Amino acid sequence: MLTTRRRVMISERLARDGQIVAKALADELGLSEDTIRRDLREMATEGLLKRVHGGALPLTPPLPDFAARQAIASGVKRMLGRRAAGLVQSGQTIFLDGGTTNAEIARALPRDLRATIVTHSPTIAAELEQHNAEVILIGGRLYKHSMVAVGAAAVAAIEQIRVDVFFLGVTAIHPAYGLSTGDYEEATIKRAIARQSAETYVLATAEKFGAASPHRIMSVNDLAALVVPADIENEVLSPCRDATTLFFA
Fold first, then answer.
1. What is the CATH number of the domain that holds 127?
2. Which of 155, 158, 153, 99 is nearest to 123 (CA)?
3. What's the pLDDT at 80?
4. pTM for this one?
5. 71, 45: one domain
6. How far is residue 134's CA from residue 175's CA, in Å, rounded to a whole number?
């Protein structure tokens, strides 16, 4: 089989199945596993897919900047934010990750809520100006793409806090690769927060499912729940149904 034909087949299989297992594809095509792995390496170098142990996953497209993302699916994000805010209980310590969807959680929280809200996002903290909740802002180097603090100082501060619920922001969700994001330092911060949290929730719109960003955060199985739109298609969710609880907005 010509290299061009193999690459077309790999791309089609990624679009259909959301992953490539090198050995299984090699056996199916009657080729050596080394041949498939070489194709995957070359396609990854060209930015066509993401190589992982044993195969490959699709890439997520580059995200627009923070200001532009605020206008994307804003109505759906508001619904997700309201559903997530309803999960917060008085007296809890909550960590809100950065991002436009989590900003909707902050906006939906009752202003008289007695709770402690921790965040490393100055934009999230600003949303809570008129709330009774105590707000703790984690500092560090500002990663402007997501408007969150990253770096050693942020990690050190996070390690001194225990939280009840972490609302984690991600750019991609894949049943095999897990939850991922586009920046190495941001992924490190997210893992640090998750380690300090009793429960971790993710709010996710449909386009985040079945894809993988470069930097893995954690497994879907490690989540307490996914908060998703009520009208999301069943085939989008089916790979994650056995991995975690689903809340619909």
1. 3.40.50.1360
2. 99
3. 97
4. 0.80
5. no
6. 36
Give the domain range for residue 235.
66-248
Give pLDDT tens digits for 94-149.
999 999 999 999 999 999 999 999 999 999 999 999 999 999 999 999 998 889 99
Same structural domain, 183 and 74: yes
Q: How confident is the model at residue 223 (pLDDT cuts 50, 70, 90)?
A: very high
In the chain, how many domains are there?
A: 2
Residues 75, 32 within the same domain: no
> Do 126 and 108 fall within a single domain?
yes
H-type helices in the chain, by residue range? 3-17, 22-29, 33-45, 66-69, 74-85, 100-108, 122-127, 152-158, 184-195, 234-237
Do 123 and 183 fall within a single domain? yes
Residues 96, 28: one domain? no
Q: How far apart are the first and last CA of the chain?
A: 47
Residue 72 has pLDDT above 60, yes or no: no
Q: Going by C-beta distance under 8 Å and a sequence separation of 6 or more, which residues neighbour residue 107?
A: 78, 81, 127
pLDDT of residue 63: 58
Q: Is 34 helix (H, G, I), strand (E, B) or coil?
A: helix
The token pair that represents 86 in the structure block: 């309803």
- Confidence label for 48 from pLDDT (cuts 50, 70 and 90): confident
H helices of 86-231, where?
100-108, 122-127, 152-158, 184-195
Shared domain check, 51 and 89: no
DSSP code at position 62: P
| Mean pLDDT within 197-217 | 91
User: Who's near 67: CB < 8 A, 6+ residues apart?
Assistant: none
Per 3-state DSSP, the chain is made up of helix, strand and coil in percentages (nearest 5) of 40, 25, 35
